[in-house]
Amino acid sequence: MSTTPMQMSEAHRYQQLRINRDAKVFTIFEGAGEIRRPVIGSALTGLPVH
After folding, report:
1. What's the pLDDT band for 5 if we cut at 50, 70, 90?
2. How many CB atoms sit inside 10 A of residue 36's CB?
3. Does residue 26 or residue 42 have the better pLDDT?
4. What value does the mean pLDDT of the chain take?
5. Distance in angstroms (rounded) separating the CA atoms of residues 18 and 23
6. Which of 2, 31, 42, 45 could anchor a disulfide with 49, C-beta 3.0 to 4.6 Å?
């Protein structure tokens, strides 16, 4: 079984799309963590969230 240049190009493109998708997901999770941090702190200390 041989790999054609077109198949290699498609595989590379798929890998790049996957990397971009994963980067977006990690950014969303990172932002969610930043939002939760003050909420958890407020729950532990009893102080209001600002």
Report:
1. confident
2. 10
3. 42
4. 82
5. 9
6. 42
Q: How far is Cα 29 from Cα 3, in angstroms, rounded to an integer?
A: 37
Q: Give residue for tokens 């958890």.
A: 40
- 42's CB contacts (< 8 A; 6+ apart) are 48, 49
Q: Output the six-digit token pair for 17.
A: 């799309």
Query: Is residue 3 packed enough to be buried (19+ CB in 10 Å), middle (13-18) or exposed (0-12)?
Result: exposed
Q: What is the pLDDT of residues 7-20, one digit of tens each?
A: 778 888 888 899 88
Helix or strand holding residue 9 (H, E): helix 5-45
